Model the fold of this input.
Amino acid sequence: MEPQYTKKQGQYLAFIHYYTKLNGCPPAETDMQRYFRVTPPTVHQMVVTLHERGLISREPGQPRTIKVLLPRDQLPDLE
Done:
């Protein structure tokens, strides 16, 4: 079965999953910015895209509310 996301989107999903598992709370956009070495608008646009595609849930305006909606076996390994 083909994943319903691009390779880059899959890396963001994997990062959110593992960060949440290791830290007990979802990452902030600044955590993703640091890890992927991208600008704040780039991270925000990715979060918006993942949310629009139904891959994550989030509470706009609330920090650390991102949740991956796919089971672990549908996520790629984090590179």
Notes: The first helix runs from residue 7 to 23. The chain has a mean pLDDT of 95.
